[in-house]
Amino acid sequence: MSTSKVKHLPVLLVVLGPLILFGPMLLRGEALFWGTPLLQFVPWRESAFQTLSQGYLPLWNPQLGMGAPLLANYQSALLYPPNYLLLITGTAWGHGLLVALHLMWAGIGMVALTRHLGLGSLGQSVSALAYALSGYLVARGGFLSINAAAAWLPWILLTVDRLVKSLEMDGWSRDTVKATLWFSAALALQWLAGHAQTAWYTLVIACIWACWRTMRSGGWNGLKRIGVPLIAAGMLAFIVSAVQLLPTVEYLLNSHRVSYLDPQFAMTYSFWPWRLLDLFLPGLFGNPALGNYWGYGNYWEDAIYVGMLPLILALIAIWRGFRWKEQTSLVRFLLGLAFVAFIFALGKHTPLFPLLFRYVPTFNLFQAPTRWNLILIFVLALLAGIGAENLRAPTGRALYWTRLGTVGAAVVGFAAWIGSQLIEGVEPSFIRAFTVSGFWLFVAGFIILKVPESLSWRWVAIVGLVVLADLVYAGFGLNPSVPLSVFRGDSALRNIVVDEHRVYIPSDVEYELKFKQTHRFDTFNLDMDWRTVRDIGLPNTPILNGINSANNFDPLLPNRFVVWIEMIEELPSDQRLNLLALMDVGWLAVLDTGSDLGVRYEAVPDAERIRLVPEAVVVGSAAEALSSVSEPDFDPMRIVVLEDDAVPSLPTGGGGEVVHIETSDPGLVPLRVETIRGSWLLLSDTWYPGWSAELDGAKTRLYKADYLFRAVWVPPGKHSVEFRYRSPLFFFGAVLSVLGWLAMAGIGWRWRKKE
Is residue 44 scored above 80 in pLDDT? Predict the structure, then answer.
């Protein structure tokens, strides 16, 4: 087989797959929308880019959740370099392009890794397609941060393996330094991609991979030797991504996840064991792209299909791997990884994961144990490449059983199709799954039977196209799109909310509107105008119209905000309205079956974001503050509850007026205040570290007020008051990151010149 003809064939195949899946959507000028693109990523990034265009850093978002960090919101990934493409393409359309590019990048990474491991073009093609077009990656296309982070897994393993090999050959050398820099850069870019769970799983497998490869050649002495460059690479990666990681760590420490993550919530998306059948019978429990999914939970979290031929090749690699001396160790290692990852992915379906959740650090940080299957998918893809590389035409009894299985697959597929015409009452998804599975099993068997002694580039192309066709067929429709008009222009909500007060959708109303009306798990193909999602104001879409929302659809939220929301939703109606007004909620969503939208917004009286309060009481803890504001007789117009360990002498005042000065800076709230006797100025925005207050240009004491908000004392007379947000950790991280990238570039340039 001519090397020159097939060298680029695997890359061409993995580029072709995403083009087929996403190219038509992009050419039509449409955008991904279902789930997080419309509800999270487009609103976040539109808000950030608008802030940047006005000359400010997008450190804070005042429009969601009564104010919340924006850049520190890890999944927003505002500092991930590929996301800068959105400044050119626009956020809505550009996200589809980014998903396609990252699937290509994932495939090219598998090509590079398998080539480095010594596999030929056939093995490279099969592995790359099985990973990049797997159900795990394609079904999660709309989960943009997962899509971006998972694309870096093969690149990170490639760089860490090169690091190990450089130490084996020469010890510390120029190649070791280069490999360490590349490993650091790959880690940093994945960490900036915005999905901590995927990044953590990748780091775990990278360290295990490095230790295994080192011990295999150098024993315990080799393990000691690899420790230094691994730690150095990790530290350097942290430094160059510190501009993102330091604010995120601060946010995490002030979030609801640092205190307690409900085990039931965390393990909701545990892998449903029956979905293991999807490896052989894709769509057995239906498919939301076809509108007939009826399995447990949602479709995409448990999607693990890697293609029929790759799966068979992976099984062949496992069966025969112990006979290939040069690959026995690798196959065993991969099997161990896959087994452990799959057990973890089962989550609550085994007694092990709840114990790990309770007693082992990091297991209680993330939701959805099923995402451990990322490692399973990677292993199956790599094993498929190994199986393809060592594939030979069967002989003897293997030939007999292969022929029998191939004919049997054809019979099963045809019988399933005939059965669908003759038998009533059978679940339609069963019929389709057996028909499709029978067809691809027959094709796989035919290919195995016809393996030539000498593999030509045409044969590699045929096998690659078969795998490509299988996976594209399985992934078709899993990333639905809509016209860009869904994201543009005013929504019906803009005609309802005629002032600047916040809107609020209670959790039970949001659940009904989201999971029973607009984002049902059984189908993507609802007969509806998808602008309805914006018309009803599902979080976080209101900010696309510049409407402020007390809701915040975000996996990371300030802890006090979460506690506050849980508290108000348990209160009686009158008390709830009282505190909603304190939150500056002027419009409350109520289910209305008689409305075309299924919801109506009712005005909330006395809503104010900024108010002057005459009296203050002091409590010594957050719990006391929360208890005080939840009392039935609490009057936010008369009393503000302040937190202070040492009770000061509190002034009392009353009366006056406040004028809010408009500004485009999201981290600044400038006010003009006039009082006769002095007053407590209460700003109903979420309290968060980094906020400070100035009175007439001089710093003044900023109090935690009414558990969640901010307050200052304003003396009699006319004054200017400014609430200002600054993130010291962001600026410190920015300095570290710049120095880190400069150091990496300088070291790399120095070694390159020496060559």
Answer: yes
